[in-house]
Amino acid sequence: MSDIEIRDDRAGGRLEAFAGDEVVGHIEYFVLEAPGRALVPVHTIVEPAHEGRGIAGSLARELYAIAAREGIVVAPLCPYVVKWAARHPEEAPAADPELLTAAVQWLDAHPGRF
């Protein structure tokens, strides 16, 4: 994984994994503001030629690390991130159910966003 660099494009709502200049995977997310601030991952995608290299896991780990540095939580809606978090509870604290409900409501109110 040393050849992969992960960059946060907050404005674009994407956490991207690069191999050189090529985006080889990403997590699409949004920032929930209420009832509390949270990063909400919606989709994780790794390009087929790069699958099986741990890129999705590295993206999930970095998303939780960003949230921890910012003092906020991750409220995952992405099935991959939900499963990753269940396997790594020491790195991925569970989100308050109220935040998850608010995240689903936000997503429902913005149908064209993802």
Structure characterization notes:
The protein is an alpha+beta fold and 114 residues long. It is built from 3 helices and 5 strands; from the N terminus they run ββββαβαα. The chain has helices at 55-70, 79-87, 97-109; strands at 4-9, 14-19, 22-32, 38-46, 73-74. Strands 1-2-3-4-5 form a 5-stranded mixed β-sheet. The chain starts with a strand and ends in a 5-residue tail after the last helix. The relative contact order is 0.18.
Write the layout of secondary structure elements.
Layout: E1 4-9, E2 14-19, E3 22-32, E4 38-46, H1 55-70, E5 73-74, H2 79-87, H3 97-109
Parallel strand pairs: 4-5
Antiparallel strand pairs: 1-2, 2-3, 3-4
Q: In this structure, how is the largest beta sheet organized? A: 5 strands, mixed
* CA-atom Rg in angstroms: 14 Å
Helical residues, percent:
25-40%
Number of strands: 5
Tally of DSSP helical segments? 3
Mean pLDDT: 95
The chain-level structural class is alpha+beta
Distance between the termini: 28 Å
User: Residue ranges: pLDDT <50 for 5 or more in a row?
Assistant: none
- How much strand content do the residues show? 25-35%
- Helix/strand order, N-terminal first: EEEEHEHH
